[in-house]
Amino acid sequence: MLPFFLLLHLLFSFTSAVNSAAYTPTDYILLDCGAPSSSNLVSEDGRKWVTDERSKFATSNSENASPKSTATSAYLALSAENGRPASLIKEFMVPCFETEKLIVTFSPSPNSFAFVNGIEVVSMPKGMYVKHQEDSVSFVNSKIPFDIPDATAFETVYRLNVGGATVANVNDTGMFRTWRDDSPYIFGAALGTVPSRFNVTIKYTNDTPAYTAPATIYTTSRTMGPEPKINMNINLTWNFYVDGGFNYLLRLHFCETQSEVTKAGQRVFDIFINNQTAEHDADVINWSGGNNIPVYKDYVLLTPSDGHSKQTLWLALHPTKPARYQDTILNGLEIFRLNKSDGSLAVPNPESSSSPSPPSPSVRKNKKGCSLVMIITIAVFSGVFALSLIICVFIYKHKVRRVKDLAVSEPKSSWAQLPCPSNSTCTTSVSLLPSDLCRRFSIVEIKEATLNFDEQFIIGSGGFGHVYKGCIDGGSTTVAIKRLDSSSRQGIREFQTELELLSKLRHVNLVSLIGFCDDLGEMILVYEYMARGTLRDHLYKTKNPPLPWKRRLEICIGAARGLQYLHAGVKQAIIHRDIKSTNILLDENWVAKVSDFGLSRLGPTDMFQSHVSTVVKGSVGYVDPEYYRKQQLTEKSDVYSFGVVLFEVLCARPAMIPGLPKDQISLARWAKICLKRGSLESIVDPNLMGDISPLCLKKFGELAESCIKDEGIERPLMNEVVWGLEFALQMQESGNMNIVNMEGGDEVMKSCSSQTSPLKPGRVGGGTTTDDDNEELFSVSGGKVSESGSTISSVGRSVTRGDLDRTKSESVFSEIMNAKGR
After folding, report:
1. 143 annotated as ligand-binding
2. What is the pLDDT of residue 705?
3. Catalytic residue annotation
4. CB within 8 Å of 385: residues ≥ 6 apart
5. What is the pLDDT of residue 674?
6. Strands 118-122 and 791-793
7. Cα separation, 37 vs 76, whole angstroms
8. Residues of the chain where predicted confidence (pLDDT) is lower than 50
9. Burial per residue of 277-286, b for 16 or more beta-carbon CB atoms within 10 angstroms, e otherwise
C-alpha cells in the first residue's frame, strides 16, 4: 500500500522538533511542483523538497510537456475571490502493488484548469487500515461483516487528537499525518474534561503497534467529568460534515491512563454513531488488558445519498449506569471515506462564483471625450431603469389595493390566510431564508408586510403589544410580526433578551426568529408563522375539534424536546421562565415549538452552581412554588411549568379557575389531590373517553406529577421527561386493544363524586372561566421589584434524578441520550 498526500499551495507552520519515528517509510518522495531544476527547497520542518522534473510531468492538451510554474500571487487572488483558505491539503491512501507505477492525473472540469503546488508520497505498513475476514469490521448497528479489500482507496476526512492540541505531521509515527484539535467539533454545552498523563509510558502491542498513532494521542483524552449524576443525563458528542452516498470508516483510539480506572467494569459506556448503536458496554480495560495499553476500534457507516451534498455525522458516548465511574473516554479519532464500487471518491464540486469578464478592448473616443459604446450603454441602461421603475410602481399600487379589498371582504379570523400578490404563492415555510442569520428589516418593509399595521391582520395581543400576520419577500413567505410597546421599559428588556437568545438558537422545536426592526425606536420581532396557533387553541374555549390523545402526546414530546435543547443542548443552559400552553405553538404539520423568550435567563455558568438569583416572573398558575419562595431560578422551574402544561393537556382546563372550590382553583393542586385518591380519571378531558390506554394514562400521570413536586430536587430533568413521554406514547400505541372506557367506569367516577369536578361530560372547557386565564405576568421581589442584574450562587449543584421509572428500552430514545441530529 502506498498512501500519497496531495498538497495544494503549502504554507508550513510546523515545529522543528522531530521525534524518533516508530516507522520508517520505504518510499518517501517530496515534490515541489513547478519549481526550477535549481530549486533546493527546505521547509521550516527541516524536510527537503525536490523539483518534479524527473517525475515525467506531461499535459494532455498541449504539445509542450515541460513543467509549468504557477504564480503564487495569482492563486492567492483566486482563493481570496472565492472566499477559500489560502492552502488546501488533500490526503488519500491508495493501493500500489509491486509491479505497478503510481500515476497521479489531474482532469479539470470544462472551462477549468488543474494545478498542484506539491505532492508527498509516503509508504505505510501493510494492513494498517485494510481489514480481511479474520479481522473484518462490521456495519454500525449490524453484525454483518464488512471486508475491506486490498484495492480499496481511502480519503482522510478527519484525524483528531481528542482532548489535546494539534500534533504536527513531523511528530507523527513516520507517516507524516497531522492530528488536529477536536474541540471545534464538540457539540453542545457538554465539553467534558481533558485529563492528561504525559509522564506515563504507552505500552504498544502487536495488535496496536507503535506506528498506529503517536504516544501523545494516547496520553491525552476527553472524558465527561467527575459528576456521575450529570454524566448520566448528557452525552459527550461530536458532529462532522460528510458527503452522502459513501461508506465511512471510523477508527476510535482508546487508552486508559487515569490511575483511578484499573479494572474491567469500572468505566463502561455505549458508543452511538448517527444515532445508531455501534458498541454496547464499551470497556477499554477489558479490550486492552490493562492501563496504558492502547487499543482501537473500527466501525463502518453507510451514509445515504439523499440529494444533499453534505450531511452531519454524529458520534456520541454515553456512560452505562452499573459502572463504578459513570464516565466515558476517547483519545483519538480518524474518519475515512471509502471509494465506491467504481473506484470513485469524487463528490460534487462546490458552487463557485462566475469568473470576471475579461476587460474589453479600448475604444477610440470622439472629440467630446466620450466613446460611442459608452453613449449607447448609458442610453440603454437609462431606458431599462425608467421602464423598471414604472412597472414597480404599478405592481405596488395593484398589490396594496388588492390586499386592502380582500382584507375588508374576509371575515376577521386570528389565523386567516393573508392575501398575497397573484403572481406569488403564500407559504409558511421559511426554508429559503438563511438559517444562521438574523435579518434586519426596515420599518418600510414591516409596514408593507402588515399594510401599515392594519388591525385586520392582528392574530394576537397581550401586555407586550400586538402580533400581526404578514407576508415578506414579495408575498412568498408568511410570517408573524410582534410589535412591542416601545414606551415600556419591560418591553425593551424583553425585546433585547429575545433578540439575543433566539438569534443564536436553531431547533426544530423552537420558533425560529427570522429578523427584527428597530427603526425609529420601534421594537419589532419577525418569526416563522405557525399556522395552527397555540396549544391552548386546541384544548378548551375553542371552536376547534378536540385533539386525539396520541396527537396530544406527540405535541408534548415536541415541546419537551425544545425545552431539553434549551437546558442541555447549548453552551450555557437557558431557562425559559414562562412555559405555558399559549407559548407552545403548532405549525401546519402539528409540530410543537416553544416560543416567547422575553423572560428567559441564562442558567448557571458551571456545574458547581445550582441556580440564578432573580426576581420572580412568570404566569399565574405555572410558576414554580420553590422559585416563588426562594427567588432562585433553576431549570427545574421550567420542569414545574411544563408539568402544569401536561395536566392542562390531559384535563383540557386552564391552570387557574378562581370561581371553583379552593382545592380546584389550581390545576396542579387539584391534580395532586385526585392522584393521591387514585381518581385521576375523574378530571380527564371527557373528549378522551375511550381513547387512552390504561398503562399510558398511569405513566403520563406519574410523569406529570413528578414534574410538579414541591421541591425542585425531586423533579426529573427534561431529558427524563422526554424519555417518559416517548415511553408513554409507546404504551399508547401498543395498548390500543385495551383502551380505558371511562364512560363505563362508574366506580372510578364515583370515587371522586363528593367533590365538584371542573370537567362535566360533554364540555370541552370545563369550569366557569371568564377572564381568569389571561395569565398576566407578575413580578415579586419581597414587595419591591428590582431591576438590577442577577446574581449566581456558587453552591453545589444538585441534579438528583426524579422518581420516574427507568425501564430500559432500546427502542425509546431521547435527543440527548442518543445524540439525534438536531
Report:
1. no
2. 96
3. 578
4. none
5. 94
6. unpaired
7. 24
8. 1-20, 62-83, 351-373, 398-436, 608, 737-822
9. ebbeebbbbe
